[in-house]
Design a protein that fits this description.
Elements: H1 3-13, E1 18-20, E2 23-25, E3 29-32, E4 35-41, E5 44-47, H2 55-62, E6 69-72, E7 75-78, E8 81-83, E9 88-89, E10 108-110, E11 115-117, E12 120-124, H3 130-140, E13 144-149, E14 158-163, H4 168-178
Antiparallel strand pairs: 1-2, 2-3, 3-4, 4-5, 5-9, 6-7, 7-8, 10-11, 12-14, 13-14
């Protein structure tokens, strides 16, 4: 998946605005080349090809959680069912569902320049880079949360993805495999 797709899907699913190249989201709808291809309708995810059966349209939609579009002999399939590209609700998807959040251990250690949570599996200075790892963790059902810490001597925010201690080794391995 290309970085632009990953970032657009992340912004859309987090309800944030983002404009990159040929894509735009206001957090409730996603557009490609000025065509609306996804939207939140009262807590449900609805998608369309907007009449454009292109690889880019397919890729942007496949970046969304719960969407798997494949093409066989010119026919598109959405989550295993033949799809004509018209507006369709993505079954089983709960829009921005917020489960009861478990208690995360935010104990941190000082690295010399910044404090790092003990169970952080990813560190970056750009919060948008967390989206790819969060998507992997969501697919694997691993609870996680974002965390930001301070720095010494320079202003650069440090962003982390933190998991529960019981999930740390598995989440760390999945992250390393994805970014190897």
């Amino acid at each position: 998946m290309r970085r632009i797709t990953e970032m657009m899907a992340c912004a859309f699913e987090r309800g944030r605005q983002l404009r990159m190249s040929n894509s735009y989201t206001d957090g409730t709808s996603l557009w490609l080349h000025g065509n609306k291809i996804a939207e939140d309708r009262g807590g449900e995810l609805w998608i369309t090809s907007a009449g454009w059966r292109t690889n880019v349209t397919k890729e942007r939609l496949n970046g969304l959680t719960g969407v798997n579009i494949q093409q066989r002999r010119g026919t598109w399939y959405l989550n295993g069912q033949q799809w004509d590209g018209e507006w369709t609700r993505v079954d089983g998807y709960e829009w921005q569902a917020v489960p009861q959040e478990p208690e995360f251990d935010m104990t941190s250690e000082w690295t010399g320049k910044y404090s790092r949570p003990l169970y952080a599996i990813l560190h970056t200075h750009d919060a948008d880079e967390l989206c790819g790892v969060e998507k992997i963790l969501n697919e694997e059902g691993i609870p996680h949360r974002r965390h930001e810490t301070d720095t010494t001597g320079e202003w650069r925010p440090n962003h982390f993805v933190v998991v529960l201690p019981a999930d740390y080794e598995r989440a760390k391995r999945l992250t390393e495999e994805a970014y190897a």
